[in-house]
């Protein structure tokens, strides 16, 4: 745990490096993998040609390969039907060499995300989006639940900043998506924080934010949170990754928080890029390793080949 500057301290907030924390998490997964000899395989499915999604999927597959996982990238055309996508998912469900399945969201509008996610075997749902995993996580029997990677990464950064004792702290989450806002609020509740979830219809959102010891922003609105929305000494986690178009086809990434202003007030703040983004991928590696380990334990003989190959 690091020491936060006190609210009377004129120093800037400490930048919480997701790049650094993600490297530690990934190194630990690699160490466990070497020790157990269990080598996970991650299948990533991308439907359509959304440029940002293509970058995220490539980063996930690249990281999986770098750490020594098996990796499978399946790219399907935007006009893929629901039945065709189901068939791909069923094939991956039935393939014992695949431990984790991730279908990149958003999907093209004709494919209903909820129904597609329901097709993924819960024990391979390393995104933690399947209703079985959401249910398990929500009722806190999280032993067998996969928890969504971005909120898991945010919690890791919060703990890294101020330790594990969050009891009684006031937390505000901006955004109520299934991917970030809702699971984030659940994890903060499990940590005994007093949690508010703000969204587009929230009244006096600035005022609400000023009550937050922990402020997690996943609004998808560049620079939404200004310095004067922040309680002095707060921990600020910026989940926003907004591509801002520049000249001649260039772009830069900006978060949902006005970083320079917020850094004058907060004790800890995540930068964009280099904050939450790398954590999402690190937690995906962690979940995929956990899925492989669970599969190995459930059926050691079926997976014995993997183990033998890695040892030999
Ligand atoms: N789209 C944005 N974030 C995510 C994520 O964590 N997983 C998937 N599957 N799609 C996403």
CATH architecture of the domain at 149-277: 3-Layer(aba) Sandwich
Are there runs of 5+ residues with pLDDT below 50, and where?
308-312
* Overall mean pLDDT: 93
CATH topology of the domain at 149-277: Rossmann fold
Catalytic activity: (6R)-5,10-methylene-5,6,7,8-tetrahydrofolate + NADP(+) = (6R)-5,10-methenyltetrahydrofolate + NADPH; (6R)-5,10-methenyltetrahydrofolate + H2O = (6R)-10-formyltetrahydrofolate + H(+)
GO molecular function, one term: methenyltetrahydrofolate cyclohydrolase activity
EC number: 1.5.1.5, 3.5.4.9
Domain Tetrahydrofolate dehydrogenase/cyclohydrolase NAD(P)-binding: 148-294
How does this model look, in words?
- The protein has 312 residues and is an alpha/beta fold.
- Among the domains are: 86 residues, Leucine Dehydrogenase, chain A, domain 1 (Rossmann fold, 3-Layer(aba) Sandwich), CATH 3.40.50.10860; 129 residues, Rossmann fold (3-Layer(aba) Sandwich), CATH 3.40.50.720.
- The chain contains eleven helices and eleven strands.
- Strands 1-11-8-7-5-6 form a six-stranded parallel β-sheet. Strands 3-2-4 form a three-stranded parallel β-sheet, with helices on both faces. It has a two-stranded antiparallel ribbon with strand order 9-10.
- α2 links the parallel β2 and β3.
- The radius of gyration is 20 Å and the shape is globular.
- The relative contact order is 0.17.
- The C terminus is likely disordered.
- The chain binds guanine.
- The site of guanine (GUN) has 9 residues, from β4 and α6.
- Keywords: Amino-acid biosynthesis, Histidine biosynthesis, Hydrolase, Methionine biosynthesis, Multifunctional enzyme, NADP, One-carbon metabolism, Oxidoreductase, Purine biosynthesis.
- It comes from Bordetella genomosp. 8.
- It catalyses: (6R)-5,10-methylene-5,6,7,8-tetrahydrofolate + NADP(+) = (6R)-5,10-methenyltetrahydrofolate + NADPH; (6R)-5,10-methenyltetrahydrofolate + H2O = (6R)-10-formyltetrahydrofolate + H(+).
- InterPro entries: Aminoacid_DH-like_N_sf, NAD(P)-bd_dom_sf, THF_DH/CycHdrlase, THF_DH/CycHdrlase_cat_dom, THF_DH/CycHdrlase_CS, THF_DH/CycHdrlase_NAD-bd_dom.
- Belongs to the tetrahydrofolate dehydrogenase/cyclohydrolase family.
């Amino acid at each position: 745990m690091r020491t936060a500057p006190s609210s009377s301290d004129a120093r800037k907030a400490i930048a919480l490096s997701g790049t650094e924390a993600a490297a530690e998490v990934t190194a630990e997964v690699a160490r466990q993998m070497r020790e157990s000899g269990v080598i996970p395989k991650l299948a990533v499915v991308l439907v359509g040609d959304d440029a940002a999604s293509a970058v995220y999927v490539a980063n996930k597959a690249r990281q999986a390969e770098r750490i020594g996982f098996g990796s499978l990238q399946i790219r399907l055309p935007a006009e893929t039907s629901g039945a065709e996508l189901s068939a791909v998912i069923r094939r991956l469900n039935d393939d014992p060499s695949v431990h984790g399945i991730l279908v990149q969201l958003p999907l093209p509008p004709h494919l209903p995300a909820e129904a597609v996610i329901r097709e993924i075997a819960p024990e391979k749902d390393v995104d933690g989006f399947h209703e079985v995993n959401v249910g398990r996580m929500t009722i806190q029997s999280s032993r067998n639940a996969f928890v969504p990677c971005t909120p898991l990464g945010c919690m890791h950064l919060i703990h890294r900043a101020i330790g594990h004792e969050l009891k009684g702290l006031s937390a505000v989450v901006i955004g109520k998506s299934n991917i970030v806002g809702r699971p984030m609020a659940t994890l903060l509740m499990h940590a005994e924080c007093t949690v508010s979830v703000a969204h587009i219809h929230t009244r006096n959102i600035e005022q609400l934010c000023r009550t937050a010891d922990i402020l997690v922003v996943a609004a998808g609105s560049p620079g939404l949170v200004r310095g004067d929305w922040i309680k002095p000494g707060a921990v600020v986690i910026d989940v926003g990754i907004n591509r801002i178009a520049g000249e001649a086809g260039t772009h830069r990434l900006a978060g949902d928080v006005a970083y320079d202003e917020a850094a004058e007030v907060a004790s800890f703040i995540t930068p964009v890029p280099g904050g939450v983004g790398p954590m999402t991928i690190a937690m995906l590696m962690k979940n995929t390793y956990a899925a492989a380990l669970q599969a190995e334990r459930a059926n050691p003989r079926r997976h014995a080949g993997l183990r033998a190959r890695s040892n030999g």
